[in-house]
Amino acid sequence: MKQKFFTSTTLVLAFLLLLNSSFINAVKAPGGEYYQLTIYHCKTADQLGVINAYLKNTYLPALHKTGLTNIGVFSSIDNDTATDKRLYVLIPFASLQKYEALMTRLTEGSLIKNNTSDYNIAAFNKMPFERIETTLLKAFKDMLHLKKPVLTAPLTERVYELRSYEAPTERLYRQKVKMFNDGGEVTLFDRLKFNAVFYAEVLSGSHMPNLMYMTTFNNKAERDEHWKNFVDDSVWKKISVMPEYLNTVSKADIFFLHPTEYSDY
Length: 265
Fold this sequence. Notes:
With 265 residues, the chain is α+β, with helices and mostly antiparallel strands. It has helices at 2-28, 45-65, 96-108, 170-180, 185-191, 220-232, 234-239, and strands at residues 34-42, 72-76, 85-93, 131-139, 159-166, 198-204, 210-217, 251-259.
């Protein structure tokens, strides 16, 4: 009887270990990166100044010391006049475990110690931001890793275009993702030299189902020319009318950004 119990217990433990191993391997998603996109929403230029100083002098140096690289920091092109002034921070992670490790260190306070920045010690009635919006993303299979753009124009002239596509249903969302990968949209962007930084599915965010991607250009005129070529391309004309890809986007948001002078790209 004891022998049977021992054997059964051993088999259960072995199964659990195998299940756990399979889960970990699935989470790592062979070769594909995860991205955290953080958006700081502000009302005033003073708030932007506090956040920029914190990101430049404290946060990014701390992230770099952990081995994280290719961290992008961008500001909305219309921040001077907009009522909702925004700063965007994009961090790539090799796995969800790397993401969780960073979140744990930030929560524990072990990553940034003795933080006396104006951002950290701000009073309750002198907020450094209005709200923080965070999105977790997973790279498309046709572009598993973030790519730093190759641009020659001064930082102040460069245009980074962040797009967010929401779908009316989860099924149609999956079809739009398929359109980028198997349908050839990513390949088309590459051929037309859109200098894409990433394409990704939104795993967790305030707008779902949703995908996001970022393309880059030396200036606004170059951006407009690229999109004209895209719309006129025979490949786009073909796939854009294919029945399986129709009505896959219910809302498209476009955000024009500049890289900050301390951004990694």
